[in-house]
Amino acid sequence: MIKGRQLFSNQGIGRYFTNTIWLLAEKGLRIIDAFFIGIWLARYLGPDDFGILSYAESFVYLFAAFAALGLDQIVVRELVKDESRRDELLGTTFVLRLLGFVVMFLGIFFVTRILDNTAIKNTMVMVIGITIFFQSIRSVDFYFQSKVLSKYTAISNLIAVGILSIIKVILILSEAPLIYFAYALVLEWILIAIGYSISYIHHKLSFLTWRFKWSVAKSLLKKSWFLIIGSVAAALYMKIDQIMIDEILDERSVGLYSVAVKMTSIWIFVTVAITQSVFPSLVSMRKKDKALFLKRLQQLYDVLIKIAVMVSILYTIFASYFVPFLFGSEYTESSHILVLYIWSIVFVFLSNGSWGYYLNENLERFSSIRLVIGAVINITLNLFFIEWYGLVGAAYATLISYAISGYFVNALFTKTRTNFYLQTKAFLNIFKINTWIHPL
């Protein structure tokens, strides 16, 4: 039996560890930006304008999920399997995402004309929607992920986020109007796109060798169409609550609820950094030894769930104190929402970790099915809970739907039951001291 430390050593843990450190550094800066600048921004805008900004971001997020076409980890997986196809995979992915942006932007335009929104809301949505165009360059990131060299894209993100943090401070100090903060989001992605391009060229690689192939496009879309459904479903149950709160209640309520969402989302950066860095090693390990693959996945779940539970306990204890202190008395009500909403990250962490299982076991359909189930439950519960219980009801709807889609639904299917057992064991391992002392 290979011990955990040996396992990680044999699989080049140093490389993956370094990669994770860079990703965590980037996510760490985003956490600092979201925490300090985000708090300052929320105080400056107040619940009403902060609610409009959050509504616009959530609205665009729903459409962005479609524009991404569910290609992210599929392209990474294909690059890990056969790097010789790099140019056709990256070129085809780039073109597909550009086409996805065009369709998405047209969709946003027509939907905003149907909804009874104010002019400022529609303007904010259209401006923020432009960011999806520049996200097409993320094809470069897929290459670096496959080579476990995400530090290069992480550096690009670090620079962009750092510059934007300074710009947002300047906007706040100069008492800039709300729309300027939408422009700032667009500028951030322009800087990221430039940084990604420089990093790619720095590795003596050329965009001129990229090529679009219909056969590759058809193959990728055939593999990802269920993931597209899953991504849209995930976006729905992650962001639809804020849209529905705006429709059922008002903009101020969206602002209050968004504080809980953003204080929770800070920690999602952590799970994204960890799972994104570990994914290529899971692909390689699955090809060699399934037993070692499951062992590594179990260790991943153990680490993720411990982080999530510790954070949730701390928030539950101190939320009523730090929310009014940080955001001001206008946001006091947000603390009650946060105490419930924070526990959803337990299941979000498990859900993000599950992609390593679904994609390596060719279970894209099951991963999408569980997200669709989660979306349907979330929307249904929100329709009733927001009316009955207000903002706390929306938090309950999120927690319940996340628990079902991220954990319980795995028990329903024979092919995903192994994943359910691994997740369940991760819960049980919380109470085993040795899994804390020797997590790897």
UniProtKB/TrEMBL annotation:
InterPro entries: PolySynth_Transporter (IPR052556). CDD domains: MATE_Wzx_like (cd13128). Keywords: Membrane, Transmembrane, Transmembrane helix. The chain crosses the membrane at residues 21-46, 58-76, 88-111, 123-140, 152-173, 179-203, 224-245, 265-283, 303-327, 339-359, 371-389, 395-413. The keyword Metal-binding does not apply. Signal peptide: none annotated. It holds the Pfam family Polysacc_synt_3. This is Membrane protein involved in the export of O-antigen and teichoic acid. It comes from Dokdonia pacifica.
